[in-house]
What we know:
Elements: H1 7-12, H2 14-39, H3 52-57, H4 69-102, H5 107-116, H6 123-134, H7 141-147, E1 152-157, E2 160-166, H8 172-188, H9 193-201, H10 207-231
Antiparallel strand pairs: 1-2
Helix pairs in contact: 2-4, 5-6, 6-8, 7-10, 8-10, 9-10
Amino acid sequence: MAAIPTLAEEDARRPHRERENLVGERTRIVNRMNGSLARVGIRGFNPTLRNAPERLEALRTLEDTPLPPNTLAELRRDMTRLRFVIAQIKEIEVARLVRLEERPEHGAHAMVRLLARVIGVGIETADMLVQEVLSRNLRDRRAVARYAGLTGAPDESGSQRREKGLAKAGNARVRRGMIQLAWRFLLHQKDSALAHWYRIRTADVRGATRKTMIVALARKLLVALWRLVAVGEMPEGVALHPAG
């Protein structure tokens, strides 16, 4: 049975969910602009740079001619949308930092600050994990893994039993975020016990093995972070940023 979140808990999830949507919109605009430029033979232009609007006006095609007028007008409009979306993302990030500073000992805020100290996690991932899963009253590690959709989907028929892959019945945001975090964790926490566990089980260097085990690592890492914020149990070998 799922516990219905309170109005305050649901409202606390809005900033990071809105930011996720805005980041997706930023990516779509950038990809659309790059596609328009590629059609006239221009590559390597970065629309997110501060001086991108000025550089846009000076772009030349491969034939050393100015951009076609309709293409240039479309790119200008996309650039305006992109500036606006970037400004909104920044506004959300600044407001979150202000909230964390104003009430640093608040339950969810204290969890976010603790997770953000883990090298490789970051404030955005910490906020998403706390608001989506770690602040919920889940009874054990199995419930945590199931809520994130990081458990298997067994298929039984008579005496046959096989796994059909991830259940994907849980929170998709947490599942995507944890798999991305697992890859970052391997990069930033090479001396941790979890990274050592992953390297041993992927020693054959097969792509299928790495793909399967990164999901297992994401599940173990989520449970370890849940224990960290719930009972203060630090994962073995994990490095932290100095307390600020």
